[in-house]
Write a structure and sequence with these properties.
Elements: H1 2-9, H2 16-25, H3 31-40, E1 42-46, E2 51-53, E3 61-67, E4 70-74, E5 77-82, H4 90-95, E6 110-113, E7 117-123, H5 124-130, H6 134-153, H7 162-172, H8 175-193
Antiparallel strand pairs: 1-7, 2-6, 3-7, 4-5, 4-6
Helix pairs in contact: 6-7
Length: 194
């Protein structure tokens, strides 16, 4: 029993790619929460024109863009483009409070791949196994909110929100991520001086 408790306290090992993904896009999650979430998802490559969601139909999968871009249309009219770090259909999940017992609302728009798009995909039923935890659910809300703010930074009025992303990212980041960022910043400063 003591061995299980000790093993549970040891942070999981991440690859260099996973570490970068955690720090850059999933910082509010602890390493353990991030690794659990990552292990639940599957990586999938979608071809040009593939629809991830269709307007007025529910989507039971959550997408995170690793590489590529998707366009959203509403009523056949272009509304936005999402790239790496985006959760194209997160709002449907967040509107239910991440509760799998609530019927999934219909998608606001159609989300289509523009070229090849590499995603992490989570099934709603799989997500419910980890999002029953209040702490995890709250941290996941922070993850998708950060993603939305990053997206806003790419709009013409982005200068108004640029400072805000650094503030919320630091405040919501798990303690270990904040320490890692601080070490990286100090190392960069030493490199510039030396």
């Amino acid at each position: 029993m003591a061995t299980i408790l000790i093993l549970d306290m040891i942070p999981p090992t991440l690859t260099e790619e996973e570490e970068e993904l955690h720090i850059d896009h999933f910082a509010p999650l602890t390493r353990k929460q991030f690794k659990t979430l990552l292990d639940l998802g599957r990586r999938e490559i979608f071809t040009d024109g593939t629809e991830l969601t269709h307007e007025d139909k529910p989507s039971h999968e959550l997408f995170f863009i690793l590489d590529g871009a998707v366009d959203m249309t509403h009523g056949g009219v272009f509304t936005s483009r999402l790239r790496r770090g985006g959760f194209p259909n997160w709002m449907s999940f967040q509107r239910t409070g991440w509760d799998p017992e609530i019927d999934m609302p219909n998608s606001y728009g159609t989300i289509s791949c523009t070229g090849e798009v590499n995603c992490i995909v989570w099934d709603r039923d799989d997500l419910k196994t980890v999002l029953v935890d209040d702490d995890m659910r709250q941290r996941m809300n922070h993850v998708v909110t950060e993603s939305l703010i990053r997206r806003l930074l790419h709009t013409p009025d982005s200068a108004r929100v640029q400072d805000y992303i650094g503030v919320i990212s630091h405040a919501w980041a798990d303690v270990a991520v904040r320490q890692h960022r601080k070490k990286a910043t100090l190392a960069l400063q030493r490199t510039k001086r030396g």
